[in-house]
Structures are given as C-alpha cells and as structure tokens.
Amino acid sequence: LDTIGYIPANSAASFSIIPKFQFASEQIGYAFSIPLAEGSEFFKTSDGGVNWNVVEVDAGQVIEIRDIAFANEDLGALAIGGNELAITENGGMDWQRVLVESIEGIIQTIVWDEVYGIFISVFDWANSKNVILKSLDNGASWETIFTFETGQPLLAEVMAETLIIYNRIQMLRISISGTLLSETALDELWEDFYVINANEYARLSVRGGLFVTEDSGQTWEKIKDTEGSSGLAELTG
Q1: Which residues pair with 52 in a beta bridge?
Q2: What's the whole-model pTM score?
Q3: Contact 22, 44 (CB under 8 A)
Q4: Which of 131, 190, 193, 185 is nearest to 159 (CA)?
C-alpha cells in the first residue's frame, strides 16, 4: 500500500486514481492511473514496487486505459478507448494497437493466460449484454465464446480450464470454450472478487463484509465485517 501510493509522484498529473495493478513476477509489476482531468498513464516497476516509472504507450496521444493484463513479464495488453487493445511483447518497450472490429460496445476486462490465450469482456450497453471473446494468436483474430444478458459490466479470472465471470450481483463459471458450468446469484452488491484456486474464492462487499467460498461459489462464509469505505478498491494476494 505504501509503494503503490507513491506512483503519482512520478506522474505528470496532479492527482491520480490507481484502479488496478498486477505483478507478473516478484520484481516486475504494472499499474495504470486515471487522472481526474487528463488521460491515463501506465507504470512499471522492476524492483518489487519500490520505484515506479511512467511507460509511454502511444507517444503524444492521450489514452484512456480501462484494464491491464499480463501473461508474464513480457506479454501484456491494455484496454484503451472503446474497442482497441494495446499489446506488448517486450514488457512495454513497444506497443501494437489492435482494433477488435467485430464487436459493438466497450472492452472492459482483459484476462491473458499463457496457456489458454487472451479473453476480453465487451460491454454492449445499448443492448444490455456482455460478450466474451477469445484469441489464441495475441489478438490477431477473435472468437465469440459466450454472451450474457446483463446491465452490469463483467470482470473475469481464468483458473484450471475454467473462466470465472462475475459482476456485482452474479457469478458464472464457463469452460474456456464457452460452455456454462454454473451460475450463482448473490444477495448483496459486491465491489471485488479474487480467485485463490480452482475451488476457493473471496469476494468483498463494502457494506456486507468479506466472504470466502471453498466449493466454487455454492456456499459463502463471512469472515470479516466491513463498515463501508469508498477507498476499498481491489482484493489481491
């Protein structure tokens, strides 16, 4: 928490929100900011989070980053703008813009797994649905594997040949080919979700508490009450 808090010190923006960070290894990590008035900035650390440096994604261009995902220290993608990805194969030194032309809506979430490929969640607000697409060639081509009618954007994690999809009120498990395995409705809104392993997950509801499951979401146990805070953003670790 201390080192993440120092990211804006290297930023050109006067104030930034850090919505997500990811460590690809013990030393290499990535994060992005959403400044209040400017475009997003992308950061990299090579010393386990002690120091963070701004990485140029598109020289001279203002970009809006919605999500980041790295398969390893080198392979990574950013969701930028509406239906575009910026993909790097050398840890952010160079970027290739990839336009996903076959979709309507905004790319909200990226999951990049070294074995199973890239998954993206596209929120089509006009038709109140989410579409999950998969690419096995680093974004050159895409296959639609799942469509889910919901007014909420989706987030996702991949674990043991299963894609775990969730919004603030529901959780779905689908195979990596798109077959629905299970669907669970929750009794309160939740702010974040974390996959521990194939059977164990944690979810955080700011007003409801911190919950864990050991049976892939069939039953949940509250392990901590929360009093509510707009500063709670993401579960990790």
Answers
A1: none
A2: 0.80
A3: no
A4: 193
Alpha-carbon span 58 to 68, nearest angstrom: 15
**End-to-end Cα distance, the chain:** 12
The token duo for 61 is 């261009």
Tokens of 83: 């239906």
- Report long-range pairs for 7-11 (Cβ below 8 Å, ≥24 apart): 7/31, 7/33, 7/43, 7/52, 8/33, 10/43, 10/52, 10/53, 10/54, 11/35, 11/41, 11/54
What span, in angstroms and rounded, lies between the C-alpha atoms of 214 and 54? 39
Rg over CA atoms, the chain: 17
Q: Per residue of the chain (237 residues), give pLDDT as tens.
A: 444 545 655 666 656 677 788 899 989 999 988 866 678 889 999 988 888 888 888 766 778 888 999 999 999 999 987 888 999 999 999 999 888 887 788 888 898 988 888 999 888 877 778 889 999 998 889 999 998 887 666 677 787 788 888 877 788 888 988 899 888 887 777 777 788 888 888 888 777 788 899 988 888 899 888 765 554 545 655
Q: Which of 112, 100, 96 is nearest to 141 (CA)?
A: 100
Q: What is the DSSP letter of 226?
A: -
User: Any long-range contacts for 208-215 (C-beta under 8 Å, 24+ apart)?
Assistant: none
Asked whether 80 and 66 are in contact (CB, 8 A), the reply is yes
**What are 37's two structure tokens?**
């008035």
